[in-house]
Amino acid sequence: MKLHYVFVLVFLQFVLVAPIAQGQQLPASTEPETLADLLSQAERNNPQIQAARLGWNAAKQVPSQVSTRPDPEVMVSHMSIGSPRPFSGYTNNEMANIAFGISQDIPYPGKLRLRGEIAKKEADVWQQQYESVLRAILADVKANYFRLSYLTKRLAILQEDGQLLKPIEQSAEARFRQGMGSQQDVLQAQLEQTRLLRELTATQMEAGTIQAKLKRLLNRSQSSPEIEVAQLSESSLAYTYEQMLEAAKNNNPDIAGAQRVIERQDLQVELAHRDFYPDFNISYTYLRPDPFQYRARYEVSFGVRLPIYRGRRQQPALAQAELEKNKARSELDAQSQEIASGIREQYVIAEKSTDLLRIYREGLLPQSRAELQAGMAAFQSSREDFQALLASFLDVVKLDEEYWQTLSEHETALAGLEQTTGLSLR
């Protein structure tokens, strides 16, 4: 009986002295990598971010191409008289000649400028797409980092719980041998040990999956060392929902990209109107017959490309541009509504999880420890059975895990708000 009390008192001292909400992590083999370091690595190395950046840089090369006049055409021709042989009739007929010419297409005034401005808007759209990809990848890194930090903490908790259950199991066995307890108590303690082993294995499996995701996001080899993460700490919610919504309207790349698409389509409509006007061509030709007998000739010509198929080309193009403009406006409205909804959802999670964390710290966790302490005193005086004591212990374990999971969800919600609004919430 005394041996039983020794085990129980050791267990009680371990649980009550160590703060549950601020438990210690298991020693790491390497120094934890900070979230800021991983975000910097992802921005440099992630192939999706690199592809989006290269696409933006490529789009910036287009405006000068489409706003420049077409290349001039240089022509060389030869006319023979009386025979298809080269230079036939060249010395005895003024019509036989060698000609050199140059021709230049000239679009109607304003068309090249509009094409250049449209290409600039398209490059702006690519820039916003790059920013959107960047934010999405960084938010994914944050979410996986927070999840891995929670799983690391949960592994530590489960391992500690396994150590704490050993004296309880041994106590139950001792009482059973002395005829003071039941075999059910022993089996219950053993079942709890098995349950902890199952939870430990499942947590390790999920941690391995998160490790693989993080390495992929960081473009690291899957055979590289495991990523060690720092312990989670709570970040405060420093902005109201209205402030975040306003920040999203000004900073969100998806909204900005949709606005650039509308601006591009405005220019596309204006260009479609300009396409109803003709383009021009001017050419100059120098004709050289036999220089010893005939004088050289010079020819200048001016051409107009007439848009005579307006009903089949220009009018459908104008209608298409106007429809795409209206489509872009509808997509902006849909994008704004989706973003506002996402901000609201993440804000509620962040706000309510803040309240939950306070309830855990100030109410549930200390109350559960107090209940366990009272249960232990009652058990020592034979006023409480083993099952009630074990239930109190499991309550403490469950609340401890729930606290850290809620903290992970809180930080993940803030990461989503950072992605959407562009604000720094840490």
Describe the structure.
This protein is an alpha+beta fold and 426 residues long. The protein has one domain (2-421): Outer membrane efflux proteins (OEP). 66% of the residues lie in helices and 8% in strands. The longest helix has 67 residues, at 111-177. It is elongated, with a radius of gyration of 38 Å. The two termini are 53 Å apart.
Keywords:
four-stranded antiparallel sheet, 10 helices, alpha+beta, 8% strand, 66% helix, 426 residues, single chain, Outer membrane efflux proteins (OEP), 4 strands
TL;DR?
A four-stranded antiparallel β-sheet has the order 1-2-3-4, with no helix packed on it. Residues 1-29 have low confidence and may be disordered. With 426 residues, the protein is an alpha+beta fold.
